[in-house]
Structures are given as structure tokens and as C-alpha cells.
Amino acid sequence: MNIEQVYKDANALLDGHFLLASGNHSRRYLQSAKVLEYPKKAALLTDALATLIKDAGIEVDTVCAPALGGVLAGYELARSLDVRSIFVEKKEGGMELRRGFEIKPGERIIICEDIITTGGSALKAAKAIEALGGKVVAFASLANRGICKRVGANNEAKPECKLPNNIPLFSLADFTFEMYSPDECPMCKEGSIAIKPGSKN
Ligand code: ZN
């Protein structure tokens, strides 16, 4: 499966002039929710992700996603792995399990996101799970921005990566885009205006 093509076909990989949450500009943007619009396509992606996890010999009881972004990917990955699916939600300074979800001491849990940038939300989810006695056996995401190192990739993790390096990250592909500060952005120099494509506008 050509993962980049799957994202392009879903209009999830955009070309243009984008203002990122970091304040930097970029020619490309991953609108990762778009790749999950069609559940049968989403299932093909999570089946591929589940295969990577199983082939690595990772045994898992439950998939836990950080809400909101990771929920659909986490739910589909749980289906692909035939395990339980739960999610954690934001609270002041971290994440917590709500809605009557419980975990058993020693339960083996994969933290699943749609996309890993620095891994900040995934790390908060992992801390919430570990505080309840769960064991985080892996991180997983459909897409990886190339800041953290996924299993099978040649790059090293960048200093901004927040994920612990003793727990593997499984992702389908790296999407590494060039970023520019507004002062140095070649598209701004050509007179174009950056647009904000994100989830918060
Ligand atoms: Zn620009």
C-alpha cells in the first residue's frame, strides 16, 4: 500500500501555503481526519498497522487513544487487533480516563494516535495509563511527522520528540515537510498569504 497516495486520494495531504500551530509556514499539510472519513479505507490502514505490531511480537490487551484526534484511529486499530478500545481525555496539565473505563493492573496497552508530531498527547495518555497500573507496550499512529523515530525507519528521533525511546512507535509512514519561519518563507516572499488549515480554527 502506498500510504502517501492513500492520503492524497483522501485529500488528507494538502499542497498550498499553510500557517502551522507552531507559527511556522509549510507548503504541505496533513489533514489527518480526512483519511478516516471512509471507515472501510480507515480499516485498511489500521489492518496494515496491526500487522506491523503483530509481526514485531507485541502482545496487547487494549488500545487507548488520546481524545479527540486519536479516537477513530484507536477504535479501528482495536478492531484490527481484536482487542478492547478506550480513550483518555484532556484535563488540566494532562489526560485522564473517564466514562467508567477501567484498566487492570499490568494490562498491556498501546497508545494510538492518528498522527504523531512530537508525541506530546501520546505521552500524556501513557502517563495517565501508567498511573492506573497499566503497562504501555507500544505507541502507534497512522502517520508520523518524522520527529519521533518509528520502527523500521532510518532517521534518529529529533530532540523535540517527547516519546520515551524504550517503547517502540509503530507508524505506517513518515511525512516530513520542510518548515519556514514567516520571515524566511519563500511563499510569503512571493506575496502569498498563509492559511490556517488546522483543527482549531
Ligand atoms: Zn509563508
Could you write a compact summary of the structure shown?
The protein is α/β, with parallel strands linked by helices and 201 residues long. The protein has a domain at 46-177: 3-Layer(aba) Sandwich (Rossmann fold), CATH 3.40.50.2020. It is 25% helix and 28% strand.
CATH architecture of the domain at 46-177: 3-Layer(aba) Sandwich
Poorly predicted runs of 5 or more residues = none
For this structure, what is the CATH class of the domain at 46-177?
Answer: Alpha Beta
- Percent of residues in beta strands: 25-35%
Shape: globular
Bound molecules: zinc ion
Structural class: alpha/beta
Report what the structure shows.
There is one protein chain. By secondary structure, the chain is an alpha/beta fold. It has a domain of 132 residues: Rossmann fold (3-Layer(aba) Sandwich), CATH 3.40.50. The protein contains 5 helices and 9 strands. Helix 2 packs across helix 3. The longest helix is centred in the first third of the chain and has 17 residues. The radius of gyration is 17 Å and the shape is globular. The model has no long low-confidence stretch (mean pLDDT 94). It binds zinc ion (ZN). Zinc ion binds next to helix 5.
